[in-house]
Automatic annotation (TrEMBL):
Organism field: Sneathiella marina
One protein family per Pfam: NMT1_3
Keywords, comma-separated and alphabetical: Signal
Signal peptide limits: 1-25
InterPro entries cross-referenced by the UniProt entry: TRAP_TAXI
NCBIfam families for the chain: TRAP_TAXI (TIGR02122)
Protein's UniProt keywords contain Endoplasmic reticulum: no
Protein's name according to its UniProt entry: TAXI family TRAP transporter solute-binding subunit
Length: 341
């Protein structure tokens, strides 16, 4: 049995620490909340912390993993954590007091406390099943069990809408959503405890690589008629959403699909709150971009993180420290990303 929760980060993080070394705590200590190990965002945010700890003198970012991004945004807005995984969609919902924030008092006011550092493509929603599951299309999922993401997470809401749009069926009426975290889901899928697995990832994904090495799988993508489905239209209208193709051939001969499949891609970012001093965020941003090559040992897909797309799909004002660095690099900052306080 694989320990999926640590599968991605154990050896890669050890290698990265060997490259960067370990720093001791200092008076400039900041908190970072990340999702569980085994998620692309955990890799990116952890590398930001490790680069800061190595290359920004007398500065330490302490990383705590677990929980969901929707909660981390509230924690940062209230000042109980300093850095977190941001999402244009989640920020939109928070700013408008919608969906998961509709019952959160002062959600829109809290959103005003948040500031962006950088954005990156967090991945594409990969939907797949074992070949022997009997599922040949999303029309066959009636009565099936599906993992769409952790409970209360933004990924689950997006993946559920994607599945409903592709199948024409209703979650927890026509098919059952299983409530697991990312690490638990990988182990449960290995034991055949659910039928359809949805992962938000960049290609190649180590967990899918491992699954396809041992078993035959089939991916499911958007069909031409799906683009008219209200649930799909609704998702593509949200900030931070793109249409992407998944080259399933990278996962080898055990994948039935021979052509790329279409799905929804998502952009995320690293963000903080407005009370972090400008000089600290400037130094961290500069260190990250100027030492990003050190972190590519963690995952080959991290080459998709580039400074020329650091502002793509961003709808949260930049922290002044990050803005200063980007302006020094000659980047044009859109007016809506310039903080007014």
């Amino acid at each position: 049995m694989k320990n999926w929760a640590m599968f991605i980060t154990s050896t890669a993080l050890a290698a990265f620490l060997a490259l960067t070394g370990v720093v001791s705590a200092s008076e400039n200590t900041f908190k970072m909340s990340v999702l569980a190990p085994g998620t692309p965002s955990n890799t990116v945010l952890s590398s930001f912390a490790e680069i800061t700890n190595q290359y920004v003198p007398e500065t330490l970012i302490e990383v705590t993993s677990g929980g969901v991004a929707t909660r981390h945004a509230l924690d940062a807005a209230r000042g109980t954590t300093d850095f977190f995984l941001s999402s244009a969609t989640i920020h939109h919902f928070m700013r408008e007091s919608m969906n998961m924030y509709q019952n959160v008092e002062e959600a829109s006011l809290l959103a005003e406390n948040l500031r962006s550092v950088l954005n990156f493509p967090i991945g594409v929603y990969s939907i797949f099943a074992y070949l022997d599951s009997g599922i040949r299309s999303m029309k066959d999922i009636k009565g099936k069990k599906i993992f769409a993401g952790p409970p209360s997470g933004g990924s689950k809401a997006i993946a559920t809408a994607l599945i409903e749009g592709m199948s024409g069926l209703k979650a927890n009426e026509d098919f059952q959503l299983v409530d697991l975290n990312w690490g638990e889901a990988a182990e449960a899928f290995e034991k055949r405890e659910f039928d359809i697995y949805v992962r938000l990832n960049n290609t190649p994904d180590p967990i899918i690589n491992s699954i396809a090495r041992d078993d035959q799988i089939r991916f499911f993508g958007l069909q031409d008629t799906d683009y008219k489905a209200p649930r799909i239209v609704e998702q593509l209208r949200l900030p931070g959403r793109t249409l992407e193709a998944i080259d399933t051939r990278v996962y080898g001969k055990n994948v039935l699909n021979k052509d790329p499949v279409q799905s929804i891609g998502s952009w995320a970012g690293i963000a903080t709150h407005k009370d972090i001093p400008k000089e600290h965020v400037y130094a961290m941003t500069k260190a990250f971009w100027e030492n990003l090559d050190k972190s590519e040992a963690l995952a080959s897909w991290m080459n998709v993180i580039r400074i020329d797309t650091a502002l793509v799909e961003m709808n949260m004002p930049l922290h002044p420290g990050a803005q200063q660095y980007y302006e020094e690099r000659g980047m044009i900052i859109p007016g809506n990303l310039v903080a007014t306080d």
